[in-house]
Design brief:
By secondary structure, the chain is an all-alpha fold. It contains 14 helices and no strands. Helix 6 runs antiparallel to helix 9 and helix 8 crosses helix 9. The radius of gyration is 23 Å and the shape is elongated. The N terminus is likely disordered.
């Protein structure tokens, strides 16, 4: 077996990409920023008071819990979604942790997106569908506007590219239907567009910032730190692997191991290994991952230590 070599990644904030994202939202919500119909909708239907903040925070909690469940799931159906999110955030912020700057950009992007998309989809599209096509039935309008919201957050052509792309887009579509339905429910239940805007902005801020600080930069910095240190059980073992496979092979093996070690305890669990292998295009069933763990975990400790990992792949 061989280890994957690291891919060169951007090293700083991708300012052109930040500006592109802002420009896209400015285009979608052009009538908001130019004082047109979108601005009037925002002024008439959004009241940013303390009650709206509390309801927005409460309303986003179920979505954050679902997001956390997806992030830690070993299901192959969400692996592509997790990987694409990580890669998008890596492209945006780079591999180095930037707590202050990344937070500021996350809040800016999330705030603009929340205002734009909630005004357009909930404040404008929902009543337009209801009044023009369903004789004022706001439930039907909510269904149509939520479906439109979800479809526009996927890549429709991706459904026809491959089986994996179909699964990834289907999973994303379902997630966006849940998100859109939640934001829509918050708006309909309160009559205050500010509630759904706040919930949407908080959700996006969490996604950007937590993914950057923990899942991407935090994990990469942990792997880099551990890769630079002796991690075999002894200098003798480390020297043996350098002599037999080469120093670069050992370095790549260390990096791959610690990128997979997401709880940073110095060992690999069966679940961590299975999830990590998805990113290499290797889809093991739970039973298959248990067989791999059984073969690699020679001391039967319940997790794979680095020496055991080297023996297994070497």
């Amino acid at each position: 077996a061989t280890t994957a070599k690291p891919i060169s990644q951007p090293t700083s904030i991708n300012l052109p990409l930040v500006l592109t994202n802002l420009a896209n939202q400015a285009f979608i919500g052009s009538t908001i920023w130019t004082g047109g119909a979108g601005y009037q909708t925002l002024v008439e239907h959004a009241n940013f008071d303390s009650g709206a903040v509390l309801l927005g925070v409460a309303g986003v909690i179920p979505l954050l819990l679902l997001s956390r469940k997806i992030e830690t799931s070993e299901s192959p159906y969400v692996s592509g979604l997790n990987l694409s999110t990580n890669m998008a955030v890596l492209k945006l912020f780079g591999p180095k942790a930037r707590p202050v700057l990344a937070l500021a950009i996350s809040v800016l992007l999330a705030g603009v997106t929340g205002i734009t998309e909630e005004t357009v989809f909930r404040g404008q599209s929902l009543p337009t569908f209801a009044n023009n096509y369903f004789e004022g039935d706001y439930l039907a309008g909510a269904v149509c506007s939520t479906l439109l919201f979800a479809i526009l957050h996927t890549n429709p052509l991706g459904f026809f590219k491959s089986r994996e792309a179909f699964i990834d887009n289907s999973t994303l579509l379902i997630l966006q239907l849940i998100n859109g339905s939640t934001f829509c429910l918050l708006y309909l239940a309160t009559g205050n567009l500010a509630v759904s805007i706040i919930a949407h902005a908080l959700y996006d801020t969490y996604t950007f910032y937590k993914t950057h600080l923990v899942d991407v930069a935090g994990q990469m910095e942990y792997a880099e730190r551990e890769t630079s240190m002796p991690t075999c059980s002894s200098d003798k073992v480390e020297k043996m692997w350098i002599e037999s496979r080469g120093e670069q092979w050992l370095k790549d093996a260390k990096q791959a191991f610690y990128l997979m070690d997401t709880n940073k305890d110095g060992t690999l669990s069966r679940k961590e290994l299975r999830i990590a292998l998805y990113s290499y295009g290797i889809y093991l069933s739970r039973a298959q991952s248990e067989l791999v763990e059984e073969a690699a975990d020679t001391d039967q400790s319940g997790s794979i230590e680095f020496d055991e990992y080297l023996d297994y792949i070497g």
